[in-house]
Amino acid sequence: MARFRPTRRQVIQAAGGASLLTLWGCNRQEQAMVTLYTFGDSILDCGRYNEFGVHPGQLLVQNDDRLFPEFQGQDLVARGPARLEHRAQDGATVEDLLFQGRGLRVEGDAIALITIGGNDLLRGLIQDTGPGIAAFANALDTFIQQLPIRPVLLGNVYDPTLGDDSRNFLGIDAGTARNNLQRMNGAIQDIANRYGQFVDLQAHFLKGDSSWFTATIEPSLRGASEVRRAFLPYVLDKI
User: What is the distance between the alpha carbons of residues 187 and 181, in angstroms, rounded to a whole number?
Assistant: First the structure.
C-alpha cells in the first residue's frame, strides 16, 4: 500500500486550522469575567412588578431573547464571560446604599450601576426648601467615593407623570415637586460627572408612555427594558 503523503496545501491548511483553534481556545480561557453590580432602588430592582421577574441588571448581562428579540446579542455575555451581583433593593433610600455595599469583594473587571433618589423624594425631599437635597447629595457622593468599583454608571430619577401635571399623585403643588426633582437630578448629574458616567433616565422616560410604569411609579416589564436601553450603550462601551 502506498504511503499517504499530504500535499503542501493540506499541511498549511491543517497547521493554520490548529493554530486558529489553539488561539481561540487561549483567548476563551484568558478572557476576564466581567461582574455587573447593581445598587439602589426599584428602578433597578423591579422584578416583583412583572410576571417574569425581570429587572434591568439581568437584561444587561443576558437578554431574554423571547421577551425582547430586538436586543438579541446586545448584552454582556455576547462579549464574553459575565455575571450579575444584584444588590439594589426596592424601597431603598440613599442611606441604604452603605448597607448594600457591605461585604463587597471585587475581583477582576467590574461595572457599578446606581439609581437612587426617588424614595428620598417621596419621603419628604419633594417638598424640600432647605438643606435636604444637599444632604442627599453628600451621602451619595460619600458612598460612590468609597465604592471600590469603577466605572460607575449613575442614573437620575424619572418623572412618572411624564411631565403632565394632571397626573400629579403627590398631593402637593406640581411646580414645587418638579423643581425639587430637577434639583435632585442636577445633584446626581454633578456627582456622576465627577466619578463616572451620567445616565439620563429622566430624558429617556419622557419619550415613553404609561405602559412603561406599573403601581403608579414602578417600572413595568417594558419599563425594565427601557431602563436597560438607557444604560446599555454605556455598559457595552466600558468593556
Answer: 10
Alpha-carbon span 190 to 138, nearest angstrom: 11
Q: Phi and psi dihedrals of 140, rounded to 5? A: -65, -45
pLDDT tens by residue, 129-148? 989 999 999 999 999 999 99
The candidate with the shortest Cα–Cα distance to 85, out of 67, 64, 116, 107, is: 107
Exposure string for 169-182, b = 16+ CB within 10 A, e = fewer: eeeeeeeebbebbe
Residue tagged 430586538 (cell numbers) = 70
Whether 221 and 230 have beta carbons less than 8 Å apart is answered as: no
Tell me the CA distances in angstroms from 84 to 56, 108, 111, 168, 200, one per residue in order: 11, 13, 10, 35, 22
Query: Helices marked H in the chain — which ranges?
Result: 8-30, 56-61, 97-100, 118-122, 132-146, 174-195, 201-205, 221-237
Q: Is the pTM of this model over 0.90?
A: no
SS3 call for 209:
coil
Query: 57, 44 in Cβ contact below 8 A?
Result: yes
Q: What is the DSSP letter of 102?
A: T
